[in-house]
Amino acid sequence: MSEVAVKDFILPNEQPVVPLECGTAFANLSAKEKAYAHHLSKASWFGGLVVLIQTSIEAGSLFSILHQVFEHDTVDDLKNQALEVNGLSEDEFQAILVFTCGVYANMGNYKSFGDSKIIPNLAADKLEKFLFTTKAFQRNTDLVKVWNRVKDLVYDLSPKKCHLGLGDKGTTTYFSSNCTSEDADIISRYFKSIQMEGYNNRVIKTEENGVTKYEIRLASVETGSMDGITREPEPFEGYQFCVTRGDYSPLLKLVVEELQKAKSYASNDVEVAMLTEYIKSFTTGSLNDHKNGSRHWVQNKGPVIETYIGFIETYRDPAGMRGEFEGFVAVVNKVMSAKFGTLVAGAENFLPLLPWPSTLETDKYLKPDFTSLDVLTFSGSGIPAGINIPNYGEIRQDEGFKNVSLGNVIPASYKDPNIFFISEEDKQLLITHNTESFELQVGLHELLGHGSGKLFRQNPDGTYNFDMDSVKASLGDEKLSWYEEGETYDSKFSTISSSYEECRAECVGLYLSLNDDVLKIFGHEGDKAQDIIYVNWLSLLLNGSTRAMEFYNPKTQSWMQAHSQARYVILQVLLEAGQGLVKVAKVIGSDGKDDFLLSLNRTKISTVGKEAIGNFLRKLQIYKSTGNLEAARVMYAKYSEVSSTGPYPFAEWRSLILEKKQPRKIFVQSNTCLEGEAVRLLEYSANVSGMIQSWNERFDTSSVVHQALEALWHKDEPFFS
After folding, report:
1. Of 58, 313, 446, 487, which one is the catalytic site residue?
2. pLDDT tens, residue by residue, 437-460
3. φ and ψ of 53, to 5 deg
4. CA distance 165 to 180
């Protein structure tokens, strides 16, 4: 690849690192609550290592190498070795530190936001020379074998290895390397036929005697057959399917052990029941047990320690069905939670304001918990600003859900901003109001975005969960359809499901942020309220027009990140609205070079903007409610197109925009440790050394972790190499 292309896959030596501060929140916990948080955090960190296996065949081995290198030597000692023994420059050693932090933060060698590969910013022979002279390699000669089997993969920037994806669009370990999108479609039909969901499994495809075989491998500690969980080989459409279990077994064993310990410190019977079901799910592979645990979690209102763990978000599965492992542990922020509580209390008044017929809304709004949390632990490939879970459709619609805003993530994300492509006046407004406007958008996005709308379903007895006549009348010319038994939103909308839903939630946030009563809940009135609205809309459009370009792959003409695609789609909708609402153009910058400029007419947001978003949002909801994938896909593809011609040639502007690309911030998280029976919080410096130290001290017995990762590599290698 060219030098310019390689730059797209490295992290800069100036990579920003920020602390995820939770010291005050943790200090206010009781001894019992601290112990509960400690063991849940341990379970989350062990489970988060599953993401390495879900990302790439080399990620687990790469993590193990880097972790052992920095575990055996201090950063200062390794720097001396690199400069004096290996002849590396300070920049080259810094590149090793930054790459290590990138692997830790993303739980693998692909970015969690955008799914593009990360490679070290120094030559392979120099990195190898450095590794071979470290104490870790000197003491454990097996590491040489581990490095030799993955080094080419670590640096491989062939087209298929540059990004995560299926078939010729990229690499994935959710499906064996011989699978294509056609295989994914066959598997989806099989799942529908046996009413199975994909959250906690992967797919292994093999050929034997001319017969194509698909092994659906469930995540569990236990292996072997089990009634109601596994399935013996059976024919389907000319192929052979079986359901096995035991995926990620050695890592899930560590998770279960910590969850068992956490049960002793639970604050109520609901938490005990919740953890019991999670333990059963991770032990046996039963998704229903995890659903039952999630039901208890929804019922556990207002806990001091909030937590959720399992195979949750489906963003990185190319088929949009399989969940990436994540676990979080957080402490409730009572001040901000009170604002969200007021928003929840008014939700039934705000939902009718949304621009779709009442027939498309749930029969009864199940008021959720909505809390602001200071994150103690968030394991997985990245840390979001807000979450609306569980993702199981039947629980969300019939029993309820929870919203959480990760309060200490938002201000950390906006530390030391570098803002381009807008006027100086707009920059100052963003710097002043970005945090507050984003808190508003997150609240509306999670509660009334993901928490709104109804899915029309046919029940097992042939009846429907909606009134046919009233729905037909409300839809007008739109087609009436529904989800059949065995279908879910994720399984039906598949590859567009994540981005489409994020787009719907973002639109709800923009639409309702115009409401005075909503703004008052967050303490915004008068001129400040108008500034908050403007910054909220401007920030989303800025992300959709500039930051989004980083996550579009022009070679495959595909989007690599759900939220970025969603924001680009919204930008296109508002550009289409015209009337001078949004302007984007190539201009000459103050340095005399080509530049890009976005502007938003604040006087037209509440008129032109509201009407355009309202009309678009109505269609988004109708197609989702009715399961009309065909219409949804056509509409969404239209606005997702990145054109090289016409008035807005973003394909041509992309290179110009990427010249000012800014790296995403890496969060340094705290650890907890036991000192006798007391739990102590360990905090770290906000730099690459602090990030590395935090991971050095994350596991009491790291050898168990490395053994587990090694065992999983040997199990996976025949199918994913």
Report:
1. 446
2. 998 998 899 888 998 999 999 998
3. -70, -30
4. 10
